[in-house]
Predict the 3D structure of the following.
Amino acid sequence: MNRSLAPLIAALALMVGVLAGTALAHADLVSSVPAASSTVATSPAVVTLNFNEALAPTSTGKVTGPDGSIVSTGSTVSTTNAKQLGITLRSGLGNGLYKVSYHSVALDDLSAEDDAIVFGVGVAVPSTSTEPTTNAPLALLLLGFAAVVGLVSTIALRSGRRAV
């Protein structure tokens, strides 16, 4: 292998690592109304989910009540804010815990994520309920490790050919 190719290979490995990290991005939930794990006095008419990037129209959500039945009547991505998903609820929901499940699809790369949050109407949410989490930092770390291994392997192979 030509010595002038080593910097090119290193640059390509770095570029692949950066681009792959971008491709791992999802439309992650950043906030909601009602807020995750919060308690509200009366049932809202709409649950609003706010994401960190624009959503594709195929993004959906539903709300289930304390007995597991669906209490939402539909969901839609906002026409004025593509980072917002609204889920309409039936009126007059009683006290209890409500689970908001969503399927977010990022508009830019169509990556999808399924997750859920919980809120309470007239009752406190148990402390075991948590905000959604993401494994993006771990994925980026593993991707960086793979890029380094590839670069080291290339250098080792190049050195081995010269020694023979």
